[in-house]
Amino acid sequence: MPSDTRILIIGAGAVGGITAALMKQHGYDVTLVCKYPDLAERITHKGLHLFGYCGDQRIRIPSVATTGEVEGEMDVVFIATKATEMNQAAHASIPLLKSSSRVVSMQNGIVEEELAKIVGPDRAVGCVVSFGATMHEPGVLEMTSRGDMVVGYLDRGPDGVLEEISEMLSSVVPARTTDRIMSHLYSKLIINSCTSTLGAISGLDLGPLLKRKKARHLFIAIAREAVAVADAMRLHLVPYAGKVRYYSLLKQPPFWQHLFIRLFGWKYKKLRSTNLRSLERGNKTEIDFLNGYIVGKGEQLGVDTPVNRRLAQMVHEIEIKRRPISPVNLEDELLDEHL
């Protein structure tokens, strides 16, 4: 892409804000859509405050509250909203697109199939984000862990444009292209369905959560159902982050399964579920794009997924205040029936 490539990032949360700021720092022409006029004004004139693994710094970025304030056409649009807001953001981006533009999804869960329907399959790009980030307050963002990113098209291999997008993202963390983006997306979806969802119903950070034997049993059951659905999709899963190898994990004797999960929980012991954070703020979760996606694909392909179905139902009950967040939820009788 030429040096005057125009980039729009929709979403000024942890992932979107850090991505926008570090791209801007590397000289890219970035505009940030951040939802609130006062926040847009502050980021434009005073900057985003970043700290953690990306260093403690303040970076100014031209910002607006809505896509309607953006003038001209964009070459690349990154959508870094919650999965629940992707549809609206994608529709809002359409007036800003050229036939050669690309729209990159940076959500948890899988939304890329819907994105392709909205902006067209030639424009849609999936992105797996594997660095940790937290928004402490609007405009104050922490990179909590390093990682990488993977980008790819749903229906074809990488091209020169995708390589350029990968180079842009390498301003943030190492990034690469793939011709198997659905495999990467689904692999991340499984780990989020195991950790973020169990954290949401229990209220526990990952370390205390995975110390519990029942939580580890549920982790294995979620993954087993998800892999069965992947098999029905004829989707061979890559290891998540090169470390979580679902096929070998599920073949191990229970002792080794539980040991691996305990160690995983210890390594990321302070990790707090994004779905739990949403519930604590009174917002909708991304459950329909995680366990709900597994359930939906299972129904289409004739694969029963009772544990994922029940967990999705429980999270929805918490959303509407019909169930409290509590470790007691891990002992749910309907879950026990399928362990």
Tell me what you see in this structure.
The protein has helices at residues 14-25, 37-45, 86-93, 112-119, 160-169, 181-202, 206-210, 213-232, 246-251, 254-267, 274-280, 291-301, 306-319, 333-336; strands at 6-10, 29-33, 48-52, 57-59, 63-64, 74-79, 97-105, 124-129, 132-137, 140-145, 149-152, 175-177. The protein is of the alpha/beta class and 339 residues long. The protein has 2 domains: 6-179, NAD(P)-binding Rossmann-like Domain (Rossmann fold); 183-336, N-(1-d-carboxylethyl)-l-norvaline Dehydrogenase, domain 2, CATH 1.10.1040.10. β6, α3 and β7 (97-105) form a beta-alpha-beta unit. The chain is globular. The termini are far apart.
Spatial separation of the terminal alpha carbons: 51 Å
What's the CATH topology label of the largest domain? Rossmann fold
Fourth CATH level, the homologous superfamily of the largest domain:
NAD(P)-binding Rossmann-like Domain
Query: Helical proportion?
Result: 40-55%
Total domain units: 2
Distinct helical segment count: 14
Overall, the morphology is globular
Rg computed from alpha carbons, rounded to a whole number of angstroms:
20 Å
| Overall number of strands | 12
* pLDDT averaged residue by residue: 95
Give the uncertain stretches in residue-range form: none
The order of strands across the largest sheet is 5-2-1-6-7-8-11-12
- Order of helical and strand elements: EHEHEEEEHEHEEEEHEHHHHHHHHH
CATH architecture of the largest domain: 3-Layer(aba) Sandwich
Structural class, from secondary structure content? Answer: alpha/beta
CATH class of the largest domain: Alpha Beta
* Approximate strand percentage: 15-25%
Q: Which sheet architecture does the biggest sheet show?
A: 8 strands, mixed
